[in-house]
C-alpha cells in the first residue's frame, strides 16, 4: 500500500509542476487547486482497502470514480498522460475483479476469496544453509522448519498444495523491528509468540511477537508494521511439520481453515502416503508442475469440506 501511495503523491507533484509551466490557453484544473488531484489519489487507497475486505462491488464503484476523477482533474494538462500512466495498478485490479453483474469474479482477481499462500518472490531457508526463492522450490527439497517445540530442524518438501506463478493475490506484508519481512495472503497462518499459536496474517497487529531464524535458533521479535499489496505469483509448499522458514520468519504451510493444527491433522494421510511411496522407491509420490494450480487431492478435500463442513473454513475472510 505504501508504494502505491508514494506513486500517486509523486504523480500529483509532477502534474502540478507541468501544469504550472504549460503555455496552453485552456485552463488546467490542477493549476488552480492541486488538492483536487490529491483527493483523486486518496480514492485509490480507499478502493483497495475496501476491496481487500471482500466488498468487490464497492471496490469497483470506487475504482471507476477514481479513474474518472483523474481524467477530469487532469484535462487540458500537459502532464495528463502521466496520471494515466500511474493508473496501471488500479486498472489491472479493475480488469481482474470487476465483471458484469451476476458473473462470478475470475480466479485472477487478487481480491477473490480463495486459498492462496506465500508470495513466490520470498525466500525459503534450505537445510544446507542457503536460501532459495519460493518459485524455484520443488518437492523433495530439504528445508529448515519449526517443530512443535519451537526448534529449528531439517525437513522435506512433500508436495505443492497449490502453485500459481502467474496469478495475482493480495498479500499482507509483515515487517519486524529486526528488518525481516514476509508476504502472506490474509488467511495464511503465521507462528506467534503468545500462547504457542498460529494466527492468520490478517489478524497480526503491530507489537505482536513472531519468530525469526538467527544462528540456528528461533528468536522472538516484535512486529513493526503491516501493509497490504498485491503481487503476481503464489505457492503453497507442504512439509512434514507443516511449517517453513520464509525470509527468516517461521510460518505455517496452511491457510483457509480455522486452525493450523486442524489443517495439519486433516492432511496427515498425504504425509503417510508420501512416506509409504518413498519406501517403495516412488521418485515423485505427488505429480508436480510449476503451473499446475491446486493439486487435485487437496482440491477434492476442499470441495468436500465446503459441502459438508463449511464452518471449519475461513476462505470468506481476507
TrEMBL record:
Gene3D superfamilies reported in the protein's UniProt record: Hedgehog/Intein (Hint) domain
One GO-annotated biological process of the protein: cell fate specification
Coiled coil: none
GO MF term list: calcium ion binding; patched binding
Signal peptide range: 1-24
GO cellular component terms given for this protein: extracellular space
Keywords for the protein's UniProt record, in alphabetical order: Developmental protein, Signal
PROSITE patterns registered for this protein in UniProt: INTEIN_N_TER
All copies of domain Hint, residue ranges: 115-214, 215-259
InterPro entries, per database record: Hedgehog, Hedgehog_Hint, Hedgehog_Signaling, Hint_dom_C, Hint_dom_N, Hint_dom_sf, Intein_N
Descriptive protein name: Uncharacterized protein
The species this protein was found in: Adineta ricciae (Rotifer)
Organism phylogeny: Eukaryota, Metazoa, Spiralia, Gnathifera, Rotifera
Amino acid at each position: 500500500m505504501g508504494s502505491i501511495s508514494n506513486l500517486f503523491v509523486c504523480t500529483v507533484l509532477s502534474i502540478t509542476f507541468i501544469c504550472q509551466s504549460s503555455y496552453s490557453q485552456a485552463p488546467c484544473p490542477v493549476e488552480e487547486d492541486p488538492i483536487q488531484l490529491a483527493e483523486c489519489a486518496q480514492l485509490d487507497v480507499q478502493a483497495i482497502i475496501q476491496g481487500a475486505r471482500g466488498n468487490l462491488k464497492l471496490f469497483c464503484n470506487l475504482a471507476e470514480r477514481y479513474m474518472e476523477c483523474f481524467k477530469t482533474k487532469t484535462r487540458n494538462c500537459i502532464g495528463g498522460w502521466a496520471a494515466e500512466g500511474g493508473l496501471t495498478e488500479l486498472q489491472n485490479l479493475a480488469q481482474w475483479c470487476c465483471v458484469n453483474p451476476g458473473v462470478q469474479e475470475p480466479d485472477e482477481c487478487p481480491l477473490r476469496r480463495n486459498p492462496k499462500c506465500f508470495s513466490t518472490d520470498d525466500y525459503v531457508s534450505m537445510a544446507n544453509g542457503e536460501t532459495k526463492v519460493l518459485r524455484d522450490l520443488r518437492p523433495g527439497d530439504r528445508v529448515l522448519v519449526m517443530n512443535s517445540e519451537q526448534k529449528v530442524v531439517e525437513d522435506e518438501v512433500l508436495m505443492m498444495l497449490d502453485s500459481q506463478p502467474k496469478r495475482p493475490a493480495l498479500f499482507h506484508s509483515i515487517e519486524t523491528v529486526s528488518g525481516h519481512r514476509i508476504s502472506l495472503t490474509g488467511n495464511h497462518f503465521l507462528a506467534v509468540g503468545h500462547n504457542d499459536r498460529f494466527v492468520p496474517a490478517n489478524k497480526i497487529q503491530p507489537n505482536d511477537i513472531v519468530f525469526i531464524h538467527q544462528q540456528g535458533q528461533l528468536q522472538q521479535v516484535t512486529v513493526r508494521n503491516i501493509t497490504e499489496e498485491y503481487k503476481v505469483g503464489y505457492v503453497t509448499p507442504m512439509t512434514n511439520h507443516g511449517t517453513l522458514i520464509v525470509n527468516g520468519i517461521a510460518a505455517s504451510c496452511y491457510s483457509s481453515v480455522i486452525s493450523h493444527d486442524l489443517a495439519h491433522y486433516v492432511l496427515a494421510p498425504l504425509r503417510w502416503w508420501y512416506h509409504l511411496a518413498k519406501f517403495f522407491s516412488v521418485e515423485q509420490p505427488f505429480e508436480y508442475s510449476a503451473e499446475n494450480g491446486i493439486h487435485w487431492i487437496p482440491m477434492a478435500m476442499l470441495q468436500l469440506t465446503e459441502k459438508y463442513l463449511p464452518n471449519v473454513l475461513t476462505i470468506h475472510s481476507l
